[in-house]
Amino acid sequence: MATRPDGIVVAIDGPSGAGKSTIARLLADHLGYIQIDTGAMYRAAALLLSRAGIDLEDLAAVERFCSTIDIRLELVQGKQLVRANGADVTDLIRTPEMSLLTSRTSTLKPVREALLKAQQQMGKRGGVVLEGRDIGTVVFPDAEVKFYLSASVEERARRRCEELTLRGERVTLEETIADVASRDRQDSERDIAPLRQADDAIMIDSSRLSVDDVLAAMIAVCRDKSSTGGASK
Ligand code: DC
């Protein structure tokens, strides 16, 4: 196994609403690692494509556009900011409309190729916790630790509904269940880099587990890895 200068690569994949972002942040903090929310990068790309009015059927135009975009994740006072072509889009990319659009734009080959390169570049030194759908299968198939974090559709929709309501969005649980199920379908049925558990990923079902339980289980695995390969800086 190749050693990386800044530590190991931890991959957390799974469907939307399984709690990946919360856990990835806590785990990254615990390890002193950088968190890379690849979903936020796909969302930012979708926002830029839509603002520029790019025809999503015209893959050559999508490819040209993607070669010009600059998406960065920055940690500012403990909060992860998403910058797209210099502008702070952290909150703009979190609406239900953007979720649906991203589910579509993330099926496009030029979008995936552009972000794949960026993610590999960001994580290659190690010392990172990457979360997404294809981290353990495509972005870092050689990640030292891989988790597949899931939960039932109902539980994930309940959490998402709660989160959106807190943010002032008016959504019902029924709508959210349909939305989560539809995104699951799009994410796992697409041709390129579909959502699936890597053969060597550790599956954690968070339906009945607290955040602390999930975190403790992951820390134990990473600690185990650190005694054989070095998980902490
Ligand atoms: O994790 P999220 O809900 O913010 O992800 C937004 C969308 O991006 C979702 O439809 C799946 C897609 N995505 C992807 O295709 N590959 C990734 N590595 C991360 C997210």
Q: Would you kindly provide a written description of the structure presented here, covering whatever features stand out?
A:
- This protein is of the alpha/beta class.
- It has one domain: Rossmann fold (3-Layer(aba) Sandwich).
- 48% of the residues lie in helices and 16% in strands.
- The protein has helices spanning 20-31, 38-51, 59-66, 96-105, 109-123, 135-139, 153-166, 173-189, 211-228; strands at 9-13, 34-37, 71-76, 79-84, 87-88, 128-132, 145-150, 202-205.
- The strands form 2 sheets. It has a 5-stranded parallel β-sheet, sandwiched between helices.
- Strand 3 (71-76) and strand 4 form a beta hairpin.
- The two termini are 18 Å apart.
- The site of 2'-deoxycytidine-5'-monophosphate has 14 residues, from helix 2, helix 4 and helix 8.
Brief sketch in words of this structure:
With 233 residues, this protein is an alpha/beta fold.
Radius of gyration: 17 Å
The beta-strand count equals 8
CATH architecture annotation:
3-Layer(aba) Sandwich
Write the element-wise H/E pattern from the N-terminal end onward.
EHEHHEEEHHEHEHHEH
Overall CATH class: Alpha Beta
Query: Given the structure, what is the number of helices?
Result: 9
Ligands bound, unique = 2'-deoxycytidine-5'-monophosphate
Overall mean pLDDT stands at 93
CATH fold annotation: Rossmann fold
Broad structural category? alpha/beta
Describe the largest sheet: 5 strands, parallel
Major sheet: arrangement of strands: 2-6-1-7-8
Unreliable sequence segments: none
Helix content: 40-55%
Q: How far apart, in Å, are the first and last alpha carbons?
A: 18 Å
How large is the share of residues in beta strands? Answer: 15-25%
Q: What count of structural domains? A: 1
Choose one word for the global shape: globular
